[in-house]
Amino acid sequence: MAPTRPDLALLELLVAVDDHGGLGAAARAISMAQPNASRALARWERRLGMPLLERNTRGSTLTPAGRVLVHWAREVLADVDRLLDAATALRTDQQAELTLAASLTVAECLLPAWLGTFRSTHRDTKIHLQVHNSRQVCDLVAAGRCDVGFIESPDVPAGLRHAPVALDRLIVVVAPEHRWARRRRPLTIAQLAGTPLVVREPGSGTRSTLDAALAEYHRADPLLELGSAAAIRTSVLAGVGPAVVSTLAVGDELARKELVAVAVADLELPRTLRAVWRGSRTLSGPAGALIGQITRGNR
C-alpha cells in the first residue's frame, strides 16, 4: 500500500531540518510548535515504514533515507512555487493591479520616487497603496491583503519572504534652541535612554529599532507618542523635545539648520529597509517588476 501523501508543511519541515541542522530550529523556522513537528514526522515515518531522523540527546539529524527524501521534497516545493508564479502571472495579465502596503517613512520618503519610475513603464497598472506601521504592514502581507509590503523594523516575521531595498540610519535630533544643540561632547547612551523623547508608536520600525538599542538601559517614559515621522519632525521643530528619527525624514531640515543632529557615544543605529511578501521565493508580475526596478537602482 502506498504511503499517505504528505502535506506541504511536512515537506517544508523536512527541508528546514536539513537547512537548520535540527528539529527544534527547523520548527522555529517555519513557525511550527516543536511538539507538533515531532509528532508529524513520527506519523509519517510510521506510514513510510522507515526512520527519517536520527534522534539523540544532542538533537536530530536526517538519516540516509531522510537525506534522499529531502532532495525530492525540495523539488516538490520548487514545483509548487512555479505553479503559484504561473497563477500569479495569469491573474496579473487579467487584472494589471498592484496593491502595496508601506511603513510611514518608506511611504513618505522613498515610494513617491519609486512609483514615479515604475509608472513610466507600467502606465496601465492600477496601484493601490496602504500606509501603516511596520507591524501592521507585515500583518497585511501575511493575510494576503497586499502583494508586497515595505517595512523598517529589524525583524521579519517567520513565514514571510524579504529582500533589502534601501539603507537608512536613525539619529537624535533637536531644535536649535535645545540645550543638546550646544553640547561639545556626545551624549552617553544612558543619558539618551533616561531622557523623555518624542517617539513613534509601538509597532513602528523606528520604535522597534530604538527599543532594541536601548533595551539594557533604564528608560524614561516617552514625552509624546506620535503616529508618523512627519508629526515627530513637526514636534521637534516646535521645540517639544528631542527625538530619534530616520535621516530620510529630516535631511532637508538638517541641511537648512532647522534641526540639529546630536551625537551619541558608542551608538550607531543603521537599519535595512525591506520588501516583504508571502508565497514563492521570487516575486512575479507588477510586484516583481517594482522590486526589480528598486534593487537595480541601488546598484
From TrEMBL:
Pfam families: HTH_1, LysR_substrate. Residues 6-63 form the HTH lysR-type domain. Keywords: DNA-binding, Transcription, Transcription regulation. It comes from the Bacteria. InterPro entries: LysR_HTH_N, LysR_subst-bd, WH-like_DNA-bd_sf, WH_DNA-bd_sf. The keyword Amino-acid biosynthesis does not apply. Belongs to the LysR transcriptional regulatory family. This is LysR family transcriptional regulator. It comes from Nocardia stercoris.
